[in-house]
Amino acid sequence: MIPRIPPALLVMLGSASLYGVKYLLDKTERKALTGSPEQAEQAKRHLRYVKNSGRLAAGSLAVYAGYYAYRSIQERPTPSSVTKEEADFHDNQYSNRDNTYKKNVSSIEEKRRLDEEARLKKLQQEYIK
């Protein structure tokens, strides 16, 4: 699993590693050029592969930075990450459920009251007869 590192830090880490590899290759290229022509050709080819892999790494870092930004925008804040500006989110998070519960309770109480009144009328009618 890829750790959640901010994209700026990833870019700095990637560019530092690329420049470090480039520095090492530049040092070894001089030695390779003093050897046989086959070694020099191999060193140039290796340098080209490293440059291409560096470009690929930079591209994948850019894609990951875009994905990180997209995901941070799309994620919904949770009560544990609420700041003072977003405090109304936590207050209103369960308001719909609470309103529905209050309506249900009031309708149940009304139904119960009407049933009791109907039973009372029935008992009164039986008692009067």
UniProtKB/TrEMBL annotation:
Listed name of the protein: Uncharacterized protein
Region: Disordered, residue numbers: 76-109
Naturally occurring in which organism (per UniProt): Absidia repens
Superkingdom of the organism of origin: Eukaryota
Bias-annotated ranges (Polar residues): 92-107
